Amino acid sequence: QVQLVESGGGLVQAGGSLRLSCAASGMISSINRMGWYRQAPGKQRELVAAITWSGVTPYADSVKGRFTISRDNAKNTVYLQMNSLKPEDTAVYYCNADIIVIGNGAYDYWGQGTQVTVSS
After folding, report:
1. Which residues does 39 contact at the CB level (< 8 Å), separation at least 6?
2. CB 100: neighbour CB atoms within 10 A?
3. pLDDT by position in tens, the chain (length 120)
4. Measured between alpha carbons, how far is 113 from 110 in angstroms, rounded to an integer?
5. How far apart are CA 4 and CA 84, in angstroms?
6. What residues contact 34, with CB distance under 8 A and at least 6 apart?
7. d(Cα 23, Cα 4) in Å, to the nearest integer?
8. Following DSSP, what letter does each residue of 41-88 receive, concatenated?
C-alpha cells in the first residue's frame, strides 16, 4: 500500500557532504512524522532527526550543527543534508514515517536503508 524509497547514500571522504532523500508513495492520506535513523555495525539503531508538522525534534547530539532534516510535503519526501561527515557517521541510514493510509489507519513504515560510508 505504501512504500518508502531512499536514495543518496554512498562513499565520501571525511569532511564531505551527502544528501539523503526518502520518498513515500502509495495510498497516502497524510504523513505525520518523518525521520531518519541509522545503524552502525554492532550498534543499535538510533534516531538521527525527525520532523513533524510542528517542527523538528532535537537532533542526535553527535550530528548537531552538521546535519539538517527537511521535508517537502507536496512530494511526500524527507531529506537529510549531511555536512562535515566523519568516519563515525558510517552506517546504514533508514527512513521512517508515520503515515495515515487512505481508508485505513495510521501505520509506521520503514525504508530499505541506504549505506553511508565515510572514509578517513
Report:
1. 45, 46, 91, 92, 94, 113
2. 16
3. 899 999 999 999 999 999 999 999 999 999 999 999 999 999 999 999 999 988 888 899 999 999 999 999 999 999 999 999 999 999 999 999 999 999 999 999 999 999 999 999
4. 8
5. 26
6. 22, 24, 50, 51, 52, 71, 78, 95, 96, 97, 98
7. 6
8. TTS--EEEEEEETTEEPPPPGGGTTTEEEEEEGGGTEEEEEE-S--GG
Single-letter residue type at 37: Y
CB 98 within 8 A of CB 33: yes
Cell numbers linked to 23: 520518498
Residue 111 DSSP symbol: -
